Amino acid sequence: MLARLNAVVREGFGRYVPDDDYPGKHGMREYAKREDFNFHHHAPTLIIASNKPNYENAMADCALALENIFLAAQSLGLGSCYINQLHWLRDDTGVREFLAELGVPREHTICSSAAIGFIDKESAAPPRKVGTINIVRLALGDEPNRVSHFRFPRLTLENFSGDDA
After folding, report:
1. What are the backbone dihedrals phi and psi of residue 47, each rounded to the nearest 5 degrees, phi first?
2. pLDDT value of residue 159
3. pLDDT tens digit string along 68-112?
4. Where are the domains of the chain?
5. How far apart are CA 27 and CA 84, in angstroms?
6. DSSP state of 65
7. Burial 121-153 (b: 16+ CB within 10 A, else e)
8. CA–CA gap between residue 17 and residue 122 (Å, rounded)
9. Is pLDDT larger for residue 157 or for residue 65?
10. Which of 3.30.450.90, 3.40.50.300, 3.90.180.10, 3.40.109.10 would CATH assign to domain 2-118?
11. Strand-strand pairing, 109-118 and 45-51
């Protein structure tokens, strides 16, 4: 099934016109032309996350569900990878027909997918992108301009490993 899906995705990228300048989309169109194209990195399992198209939190819900799957996979010694390509091709007729054959509801939008498999070799975490995420922590009772950690009123954080300053 994954080999057939890979072929359908390759065909989809032959018709695909990126809707923005995101380099990954343009690069994937070129990669799909190569003989060694495999959008799911040869993983033996692909999980497709879909949801109702008019549901405001569809993408977030699916991403969070996959995040939990990634954590579970890691705990079992498996590798995982977030896959965007089916989301990019969510409106391609050929891809949608094949996904319907696989049981993905036709009325759903494809939010994302996950490749799960055995780790070939350990890899280092990529460097953090400084300044892309800002965490503001405000302790109850602190002055509004003092940054600290947040204590939930009904939750004790004695074992909290964050900055206690």
Report:
1. -105, 125
2. 39
3. 999 999 999 999 999 999 999 999 999 999 999 999 999 999 999
4. 2-118
5. 13
6. H
7. eeeeeeeeeeeeeeeeeeeeeeeeeeebbebee
8. 35
9. 65
10. 3.40.109.10
11. antiparallel
